[in-house]
Amino acid sequence: MGLVTTKEMLEKAYKGGYAVGAFNVNNMEIIQGIMEAATEQNAPVILQVSAGARKYANPIYLKKLVEAAVECSKLSGKDIPVALHLDHGPDFETCKACIDSGFTSVMIDGSKYSFEENVELTKKVVEYAHPRGVVVEAEIGKLAGIEDDVNVSDTDAMYTNPDEAVEFVKRTGCDSLAIAIGTSHGAYKFKGEPKLRFDILKKVQEKLPGFPIVLHGASSVPQEFVEMCNEYGGNIPGAKGVPEEMLKEAATMAVCKINIDSDIRLAMTANIRKCFVEEPEVFDPRTYLGKAREAVKNMVSHKIVNVLGCNNKA
Ligand code: G3H
Ligand code: 13P
Ligand code: ZN
Predict the structure, then answer these.
(1) Which of 216, 225, 300 most suits a substitution to test ligand 2, by most atoms within 8 Å of the C-beta?
(2) Who lines ligand 1 at CB under 6 A?
(3) Which of 4, 174, 235, 303 is in Cβ range 3.0-4.6 Å of 138 for a Cys bridge?
């Protein structure tokens, strides 16, 4: 099958009442862990690359690693649909570079700009992407917390206005839209009780029937990993994510793509810390990175089956 766009994946997810996982990739072990899980569960999957990932790993390395992953999945006999997506594209040039190098989907994140500037920028990316067969995700409303370089304090956090969402989609021609309903990036999402504005999501869905919505900042921050990190020398007290039940509910609604990065980081770090403490004699990176990869695989598999519901939807 090779790389596919997210178009059909998200359409099917909408109709089927489930969501596709979009997992951030930064190195070989992360890609392998995600792909092994998706292949085993016969699930469609989105591998997403941030500007930070491109800087860390080099765009050519990441592209080739993803190609290798797709080839290995095919060889295993299960040809699952895989999309390669730019996460939080900061500007037109980065989107263009990814489109030109074979990404099947890009996000242009103009949420830091005014509504009008965001419309203009998103339209420009759509006009470049669509004739080349690439789909575009956009964002309106600001997520609380840290969005790459943009720091939005809790008090500034803005929920998406459903009427603006409708106007934005109509004027830009984007293919999916990330909205702000209370999630945030990172491992500290809620000070008190977790709360998502399902009323806003419902309104957006009513006003944009059939249109795929994206949930960023959707890691659930499994307490098992937080406790493991803290037990083995880490210091991340009080880390808290989006409860899995809420993600499951969102997936039955218009949310078709659920973004997960922090849970990957936590799964790897917890297991590497444990290995370093329990097996201090270990100095072969394959030992601890192998454990980290296995932890990513198990975590992703759990998400696919128990949260996203996209198992056997390849
Ligand atoms: O939404 C942000 C993602 O978690 C990517 O993070 O910019 O540190 O790669 P990053
Ligand atoms: P988390 O920090 O909740 O994993 O969010 C990741 C994300 O939204 C990537 O775009
Ligand atoms: Zn995000």
Answers:
(1) 216
(2) 24, 50, 52-53, 87-88, 148, 185, 261
(3) 174
Q: Report the atom number in ligand 1 closest to the C-alpha of 216.
A: 1
- The domain ranges of the chain are 7-308
Q: Contact at 8 Å (CB) between 230 and 280? A: no
Residue owning tokens 């997936």? 251
List the chain pLDDT tens, one digit each, 314 residues.
779 999 999 999 999 999 999 999 999 999 999 999 999 999 999 999 999 999 999 999 999 999 999 999 999 988 899 999 999 999 999 999 999 999 999 999 999 999 999 999 999 999 999 999 999 999 998 886 544 444 444 443 579 999 999 999 999 999 999 999 999 999 999 989 999 999 999 999 999 999 999 999 999 999 999 999 999 999 999 999 999 999 999 999 999 999 999 999 999 999 999 999 999 999 999 999 999 999 999 999 999 999 999 999 99
87 counts as catalytic:
yes
Q: What residues contact 14, with CB distance under 8 A and at least 6 apart?
A: 210, 212, 254, 256
CATH class of 7-308: alpha beta
> Which residue's alpha carbon is at the smallest distance from atom 9 of ligand 1?
52
The token pair that represents 314 in the structure block: 């390849």
Q: Is 280 exposed, middle or buried (0-12, 13-18, 19+ CB in 10 A)?
A: exposed
Residue 147 CA to ligand 2 center (angstroms) comes to: 9
pTM score: 0.96
* Contacts (Cβ under 8 Å, ≥6 apart) of 303: 21, 260, 263
> Which ligand does the CA of 142 lie closest to?
3
Q: What do you get for the CA distance between the two ends of the chain, in Å?
A: 11
For residue 250, give the H/E element and its range. helix 244-252
Q: What are phi and psi of 269, to 5 degrees?
A: -65, -45
